[in-house]
Structures are given as C-alpha cells and as structure tokens.
Amino acid sequence: MARRKSKAKQQEELIQSLFGFVAVSSFFGTFYFTKSMIASIIIALIAVVIIIFILVVKHKQKVDSLKRSGISDIDKMDGHQFEHYLSHLFKSQGYSVQVTSASGDYGADLVLKKDNRKIVVQAKRYSKNIGIEAIQQVHSSMNYYQATEAWVISNRFYTKAAMNLAKANQVRLFTRQELIDMILKMNPDAIPKPAEILEQVQRGDKRCNKCGHNMVIRKGPKGEFYGCSTFPKCRNIVSIYNKRELIQNG
C-alpha cells in the first residue's frame, strides 16, 4: 500500500504547482497579446514575486496568530493545568464550569452549563493525535452527569477512527485549530494567558515536600488545593494557584 503524503508535503507540492501555473499562464498570456519574449518573462517574474509576497504575509499572520493564542504554552501544560485553563476560557464565555478531577471524573474533566445545556468535556493536552478512548469515555459520562452534549477538546488533532466514532455518537471534537480560533475570538483581558496558568497552577504530578508521597487534588470550603495522599498521617497542603507552599503540620 502506498504511503500517504504528510500534510506539509501536500502543501509544499501545492505551492510548487501554484508557482508553476502562475509563471506559465503569465508568460503565455502576455506573449499571446504582446508577441514579446522579454515582456512575457518580465510579467511572469512579477507575478511569481507577487505570489511569494502574499504567501510571506499570510505566513507572518499565521505565526502572529499562534503567538497571540499562546498555543505553545498550552503545549507545555500537563492535563491538570489544561483543565484549569479551559475552565477560565469557558467561564469568560458565560458558562458555569465544574472541574471534576478532584473527586473522580467518571469520564468527564469538565461539566459546562449554559442556556439549559449541560455539556461534559474531555480535556486532552497531548503530544500526539487523540484516539477513540477519549470519545468512549466522554460519551459514557453523559448518563452519569445527565448531560445533553459531549465534547472533546485537545491541543492536537484526531485519528480517523476517533472522528468516525465521534460522528456516530454525536460527540463534538475541537481540534488544535478550533481551540486556537476560540482563544483568538476572546477578549485577551477576560481570561488568563496560558503562560499565566503555567506560572500560577501547579502541575498535577506534584510530590509532598514533607514525606515525598504524591499530592492529590482535594476540595475544601475555599476551593481546590493539593493535599498529601497519606492524609491524615501527613497533613501538608499546597495552594493550587500560588507557588508559595502553605504548610499545616499535624
């Protein structure tokens, strides 16, 4: 079986074809009207230069958009930080947001509510494309949370099998580009920048600085915090939103 060409390779071949078409059509079109070889060559070169300029401008716009979206900082997050970033993103859009990971998520990382809609969300901050497991998990969580919709949101893209399963089960998939577009549409002052989440929210794999065991996310009257997994033997706690450790010895 022939190997499929990568998207980058396909784009490269398309650009090469575009240059060839513009150069040839400009040359022969000019020659048809002027019968001048020199004029035809000059016009063809000018047309190619214009195409190159347009492509350079579009590339710069794309780079600027990626920078403004903070997607490179999102790529550095762990799953816990990504969930908290998404919670801020959706709160700024008027959703009521519940982060479920503190108590066991039953297949959903976030639960969104707005306008009589209840949406369960799987947040996948991955370094590779997302497979069918995310779709299976979020779809299975709908009954538990009595949700009307199920979404998967990722900084990556999805396998063909995942897209087919999502379509069959009416699960909405947000790709990397759709996430970027959503961020760029928001008022930048309405939500924390991804870099700020990296700075303020501790990673989910934190270890207790007192006993060395894993810290787990717990809920208290004032919200979520990290507590030692050996509680009550060790009562060390750490604020999620502040790097300064709040120590409570027991």
Explain the overall architecture.
The chain is α/β, with parallel strands linked by helices and 250 residues long. The protein folds into 3 domains: 8-55, no CATH class; 73-200, Trna Endonuclease, Chain: A, domain 1 (3-Layer(aba) Sandwich); 204-250, no CATH class. It has 8 helices and 8 strands, in the order H-H-H-H-E-E-E-H-E-H-E-H-H-E-E-E. A 5-stranded mixed β-sheet has the order 1-2-3-4-5, with helices on both faces. Helix 6 (160-169) links the parallel strand 4 (149-154) and strand 5. Helix 1 (7-34) runs antiparallel to helix 2 and helix 2 (37-69) crosses helix 7 (176-185).
What's this, in brief?
This protein is an alpha/beta fold and 250 residues long.
Q: What is the mean predicted local confidence, pLDDT? A: 81
Model regions low in confidence, pLDDT < 50 over at least 5 residues: 242-250
CATH fold-type name of the largest domain: Trna Endonuclease, Chain: A, domain 1
Domain module count: 3
Number of DSSP E strands: 8
What structural class do helix, strand and pairing data support?
Answer: alpha/beta
CATH class of the largest domain: Alpha Beta
Distance between the termini: 65 Å
Q: What is the CA-atom radius of gyration, in angstroms? A: 25 Å
β content, as a range? 15-25%
Shape: elongated
Number of helices: 8
Q: What is the architecture of the largest domain at the second tier of CATH? A: 3-Layer(aba) Sandwich
Q: Determine the fraction of residues in helical runs and give it as a percent range.
A: 40-55%
Largest sheet: 5 strands, mixed
> What is the N-to-C order of secondary-structure elements (H for helix, E for strand)?
HHHHEEEHEHEHHEEE
Major β-sheet strand ordering: 1-2-3-4-5
